[in-house]
Design a protein that fits this description.
Layout: H1 2-13, H2 15-36, H3 48-70, H4 73-82, H5 92-106, H6 108-120, H7 122-128, H8 134-137, H9 148-155, H10 170-187, H11 191-211, H12 213-256, H13 258-267, H14 272-285, H15 292-304, H16 313-323
Helix pairs in contact: 2-3, 2-6, 3-5, 3-6, 3-7, 4-5, 5-12, 6-11, 7-10, 11-12, 12-14
Family: Belongs to the CALHM family.
InterPro entries: CALHM
GO cellular component, one term: plasma membrane
Length: 324
C-alpha cells in the first residue's frame, strides 16, 4: 500500500511527465487499435466514401475527446474561465496557454491514427476507387462498352479481395491498388502530414519561446500556480473536513457516553495525554471555522472572490506576531 501511495504522490508531483506518458500510451493504443481493426469496405458506390471517411475521422475525434477527458487541467481551465472576476482578474493569455497545452497533447493520438490510416492506404482506396482513371493505368478491355454506371459499380468492387469477378482480372486490382496507395502515402498527406506535424511541433516548441520569452515564462508560471493553488485548496479542504469530522464525532461520543469515557479514563490513563494532543491538533486544523454555515460561506467566497495575488508583508508579520 505504501508503494502505491508513493507512486501516486510521484505522479501528482510530476503531472506534466505523467500526462506526456498518457499521450504516448494513447498514441500507441491508436496505432494498435487500427492494426487489430478489421477493415471491411462495402464495395458499393453509395457507401464506400461514407464508410472510409467515417473510419478516417470518427476514431480520431474520439481519441481527441478522450485526451481532453483524461487531462486534469481541463477542469482547472473551465473553473478559471467561468469563475467571477472578484478580487482577482482573469488573464486571457493564461487561459489560452492552458487550452493550447491541453489541445497539443490531445492531438497526438488522432495524428497517429491519421498517419497510420493514410500510410496503410486501404481506407483511401475504398473511398476513391470509383474515381480511378482506369484508362491511364493500362488498356483493360474489360471496361470497354460499359456504361458509366456499370463502370463505377465495377470500380467500387476493387478494394474487395474476395470479389469473384476480379479473380479473373487480378492485374486490374493490383495496378489500381498500387496506384491509390501511392497517392494515399505520398500525395494525400501520408508523409506530408507527418512532415507538417513535425514542422509545426518544431515551431511551437522551439521558435515561440525565443520571440516571447518573458510572456511565455509569465503565462507558464501562472498556469502552474493556478493548478497548484487548486490542489492545495483541495488538500486543505480535505484536512479541514477530516478534522471537523473527528471533533464532531468526539463531541458526540462525549455527550452520549460520558460514563464509559470516565471508566476507560481510570483504566487507560496513559493514553489520555495522546488523545488530548491529537484533539488540540484537530482543533488547530479547523482554522476557526466550526459551523456548517461558516464553511459554506468560505467556499462560496473562494469561488466568487478569490484573494488578490498581492501578499502584504505587514499583514503577514502581524499574523505571525499574533500567533506568537
Amino acid at each position: 500500500m505504501d508503494k502505491f501511495r508513493m507512486m501516486f504522490q510521484f505522479l501528482q508531483s510530476n503531472q506534466e511527465s505523467f500526462m506526456n506518458g498518457i499521450c504516448g500510451i494513447m498514441a500507441l493504443a491508436s496505432a494498435q487499435l487500427y492494426s487489430v481493426f478489421e477493415f471491411s469496405c462495402p464495395c458499393m458506390p453509395e457507401y464506400n466514401y461514407a464508410y472510409s471517411m467515417g473510419l478516417l475521422f470518427v476514431p480520431p475525434l474520439w481519441f481527441f475527446l478522450l485526451g481532453f477527458v483524461m487531462n486534469n487541467n481541463v477542469s482547472v481551465l473551465a473553473e478559471e474561465w467561468r469563475r467571477p472576476t472578484g478580487s482577482r482578474r482573469k488573464d486571457p493569455t493564461i487561459l489560452r496557454y492552458m487550452f493550447c497545452s491541453i489541445t497539443q497533447r490531445s492531438l497526438i493520438a488522432p495524428a497517429v491514427w491519421f498517419s497510420v490510416t493514410l500510410m496503410h492506404g486501404r481506407s483511401f482506396l475504398c473511398a476513391f476507387s470509383t474515381s480511378i482513371d482506369i484508362d491511364r493505368l493500362g488498356n483493360f478491355s474489360v471496361f470497354r462498352g460499359m456504361s458509366e454506371e456499370e463502370r463505377i459499380k465495377l470500380l467500387a468492387r476493387i478494394p474487395c479481395d474476395d470479389d469473384v469477378y476480379f479473380e479473373q482480372h487480378k492485374e486490374i486490382r493490383m495496378v489500381a491498388t498500387r496506384y491509390m496507395k501511392c497517392i494515399s502515402q505520398l500525395q494525400a498527406c501520408g508523409w506530408m502530414l507527418l512532415l507538417m506535424m513535425t514542422f509545426t511541433a518544431f515551431l511551437i516548441r522551439g521558435i515561440r519561446p525565443c520571440f516571447t520569452q518573458a510572456a511565455f515564462l509569465k503565462t507558464k508560471y501562472w498556469s502552474h500556480y493556478i493548478d497548484i493553488e487548486r490542489k492545495m485548496f483541495d488538500e486543505t479542504c480535505k484536512e479541514h473536513a477530516k478534522s471537523f469530522a473527528k471533533v464532531c464525532i468526539h463531541q458526540y461520543f462525549e455527550s452520549i457516553s460520558g460514563e464509559m469515557r470516565s471508566f476507560h479514563h481510570n483504566r487507560m490513563y496513559g493514553r489520555d495525554d495522546d488523545d488530548n494532543a491529537q484533539n488540540v491538533d484537530d482543533e488547530e486544523k479547523l482554522l476557526g471555522i466550526r459551523a456548517q454555515e461558516d464553511m459554506n460561506k468560505v467556499l462560496w467566497n473562494w469561488h466568487t472572490s478569490k484573494p488578490a495575488l498581492a501578499l502584504r508583508k505587514d499583514k503577514m508579520d502581524a499574523q505571525s506576531n499574533g500567533r506568537v
